[in-house]
Amino acid sequence: MKPVSKSAILFSLFISSAAYAQDEVVSKEFSQTLLTIAIVLGILASCYVFVLSIKLDGGVIASTLLLYGAGMLSVVTSLLSVTWLKSSLGSYAGVSHDAFFIIGFFLMVVGSIRIARMIG
User: Is the distance from CB of 49 to CB of 65 less than 8 angstroms?
Assistant: First the structure.
């Protein structure tokens, strides 16, 4: 008998969690939990990318990693504006979400362009 792969376990957890989230009350709590996990992972990933760019000590790759880190942090800020900061931002929550989201992806595209120029 073959051992179960990690991807099969993750897939089954995903399917079971989606079925569990069909209840309206559970769905809202489940959605908030997923957003919180996304925010925490985004902050950790951004910090890791910033640390890597500092370790590289300058150059094209380091500046590109800084752009990627700033872009990811901007996307995380967009998530924060529609979750935890929604009550304090009021009607500006949607606008700040969209603005930070656009800025984040723009920074990551600029980083990708720098890498493309370096390669060829």
Answer: yes
